[in-house]
């Protein structure tokens, strides 16, 4: 390979790296923007004890925000380092992996649209029930993280002995996610939804463990999803007992 060919190859790699970094920055800035109202809600219901020290208003919120920022920065930096290692970035595969969970989320949104406005407000809810405006940004962020996680695993598909099984597990948890929306909001069967969400949680944890063995970051990106579904299970149980 001549010097000119090497230069062209280096320029091409640099261009891909820059585009890759820009795409990641846009994704993570979007996720961060969606997380802010969630953190404000957490601060409202779960304030950190001040231990007798006077803390300025909003300080707890800033502390929580700094933790989330650190998580987002770590994830972004890790992915950027991958790009810097000259690993090819497949924009089509990346967008497809993002589109699949987002499409599932959109379909779930269609199933819940009517009940959220008519039936759901009539239910007795626990005091920690978040406002309805919290749910769309949280789920959008989780589906984006899910898509990034799936893409990281897809990149290593040739190294995975049982890639079809791994893929099947991922799609099973997506289908179970959609089924919960159907059972709870469309069929309005709270008891069945409670059983289903515990099955969903078990499958998500299994999916996270499998992904972690393939790519540590891919597994770690499932942590917010696990925490949110755990909270959703508690919320479903509370609604079931109250109604």
Main sheet makeup: none
Rg (CA only): 21 Å
Please state the structural category.
mainly alpha
What is the helical fraction, as a range of percent? over 70%
Low-confidence stretches: 14-23, 32-36, 38-59
Q: Distance between the terminal alpha carbons, to the nearest Å?
A: 73 Å
What is the string of SSEs from the N terminus onward? HHHHHHHH
Mean of pLDDT:
76
Q: In what range is the share of β-strand residues?
A: under 5%
Total beta strand runs: 0
Number of helices: 8
Name the overall outline: elongated
Question: Could you list some keywords that capture this structure?
Answer:
243 residues, mainly alpha, 79% helix, elongated
Write a brief structural summary.
This protein is an all-alpha fold.
Task: Describe, in plain words, how this protein is organized in 3D.
It is a single chain. This protein is mainly α and 243 residues long. Helix content is 79%, strand content 0%. It is built from eight helices and no strands. It is elongated, with a radius of gyration of 21 Å. Mean pLDDT is 76; it is low at 14-23, 32-36 and 38-59.
Topology (SSEs and partners):
Blueprint: H1 3-45, H2 59-84, H3 91-117, H4 135-155, H5 163-186, H6 190-214, H7 216-220, H8 223-242
Helix pairs in contact: 1-2, 1-4, 3-4, 3-5, 5-6, 6-8
């Amino acid at each position: 390979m001549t010097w000119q060919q090497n230069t062209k190859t280096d320029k091409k790699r640099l261009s891909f790296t820059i585009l890759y970094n820009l795409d990641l920055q846009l994704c993570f800035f979007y996720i961060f923007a969606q997380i802010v109202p969630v953190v404000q809600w957490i601060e409202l219901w779960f304030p950190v004890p001040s231990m007798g020290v006077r803390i300025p208003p909003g300080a707890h919120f800033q502390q929580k925000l700094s933790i989330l920022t650190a998580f987002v920065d770590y994830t972004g930096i890790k992915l950027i380092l991958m790009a810097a290692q000259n690993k090819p970035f497949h924009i089509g595969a990346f967008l497809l992996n993002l589109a699949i969970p987002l499409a599932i989320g959109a379909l779930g949104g269609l199933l819940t649209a009517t009940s959220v406005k008519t039936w759901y407000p009539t239910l007795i809810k626990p005091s920690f029930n978040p406002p309805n405006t919290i749910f769309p940004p949280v789920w959008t962020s989780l589906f984006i993280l899910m898509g990034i996680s799936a893409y990281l695993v897809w990149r290593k598909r040739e190294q995975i002995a049982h890639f079809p099984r791994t893929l099947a597990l991922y799609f099973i948890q997506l289908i179970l996610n959609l089924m919960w929306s159907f059972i709870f909001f469309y069929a309005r069967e709270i008891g069945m939804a409670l059983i289903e969400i515990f099955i969903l949680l078990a499958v998500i944890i299994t999916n996270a463990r499998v992904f972690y063995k393939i790519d540590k970051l891919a597994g770690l990106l499932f942590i917010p999803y696990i925490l949110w579904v755990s909270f959703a299970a508690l919320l479903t149980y509370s609604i079931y007992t109250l109604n």
